[in-house]
Write a structure and sequence with these properties.
DMT family transporter, transmembrane helix, cell membrane, AA-Vitamin_Transporters, EamA_dom
Length: 310
């Protein structure tokens, strides 16, 4: 269990990068950021997939269909919606909505549990989920209080997109975890490469359509890379390798080692990492309420671990 927890923590650390990228590149749409990130992911996955050819050949048609579904929902749709939400409503609202993932995933894991899942009584989840929910509310309350009245239209648009991202990112870890636990012959690295290869044609086709819909008077490279090509390409490569391939590999490993209800709650590490990066980008120190909220989040995680270990 310890190795699974460390893998989930590491995945959260690299996944936190995706929250600050839309703030660094405000002139790029969420769709452009999503296609760029996963185009890079797919290209990066070609090398490990080539080196892992014997295992890749063992994947069945059903495996590839599952990888495509996971890539479409958990990668492209999720990040396009999240990045757009952050640009429309700012970072606080999407962080609040996405930050409810540990609670939403734990509830969904219980509601759709199978006989193979680790069963734990609802009453044992009340304390850890309550601590996590309270921590998330405190973390975001100070941020939400700063919302400008003139931002309400973009606020609600961002809220809707963040809810879409929440639905996609709730479905992804549960389905991914279930599939890996039912197909234990698939290694975490093989499955990460498979999802990268499944993402590549989807992202390439999406980027092609996006480029064709842009101003035709601009050269192809300008439509493809936008106003800050070096920053865009560099960050897409960083996200493609660290937040996508490496993050997926780490999360796949955690999904194989941990009960689904517990691994879902450990996505809170992503929220903690995102907050850390956001405050570093702002060059601000968190308010006392936010620090208290972070402490509650950590206590909630510890309480969850204790429940699942007992």
């Amino acid at each position: 269990m310890l190795s699974g927890i460390l893998a989930a923590l590491s995945a959260g650390i690299v996944w936190g990068l995706v929250f600050v990228t839309p703030l660094i590149l405000p002139d790029y749409t969420g769709i452009q950021l999503s296609f760029g990130r996963y185009l890079a992911f797919g290209l990066i996955a070609l090398l490990p997939a080539w080196l892992d050819r014997p295992q890749m050949r063992k994947l069945t048609r059903a495996d590839w269909l599952c990888a495509f579904r996971l890539a479409l929902v958990g990668n492209l749709i999720y990040y396009a919606a999240l990045a757009s939400a952050i640009q429309l409503a700012g970072a606080p609202l999407p962080t609040l909505i996405i930050g409810t993932l540990p609670v939403v995933i734990a509830i969904c894991a219980k509601l759709f549990a199978t006989e193979e899942d680790h069963h734990i009584a609802w009453r044992h989840l009340v304390l850890p989920l309550g601590l996590i929910a309270s921590g998330l509310a405190l973390v975001n309350s100070a941020e939400l209080a700063q919302l400008h009245p003139g931002q309400w239209r973009s606020y609600w648009q961002g809220a809707l997109l963040a809810c879409i991202a929440l639905a996609a990112w709730t479905w992804y870890p549960l389905q991914n975890s279930r599939y890996l636990q039912q197909h234990t012959h698939i290694s975490a690295s093989t499955w990460a490469s498979a999802q990268g290869l499944a993402t590549l044609p989807l992202a390439a086709a999406g980027m092609l359509v996006y480029v064709l819909l842009q101003d035709s008077s601009l050269p192809i490279y300008a439509r493809l890379t936008g106003p800050e090509p070096l920053s865009y390409l560099g960050l897409m490569l960083v996200l493609g390798f660290f937040a996508s391939w490496l993050g997926t590999l780490l999360w796949n490993y955690a999904s194989q080692q941990l009960p689904r209800g517990l691994s879902g709650q450990l996505i809170v590490f992503e929220t903690l990492a995102a907050l850390t990066y956001a405050y570093c980008w702002r060059q601000e120190w968190p308010a006392p309420a936010i620090l208290l909220g972070i402490a509650l989040l950590v206590l909630g995680i510890m309480a969850a671990l204790k429940r699942f270990q007992s």
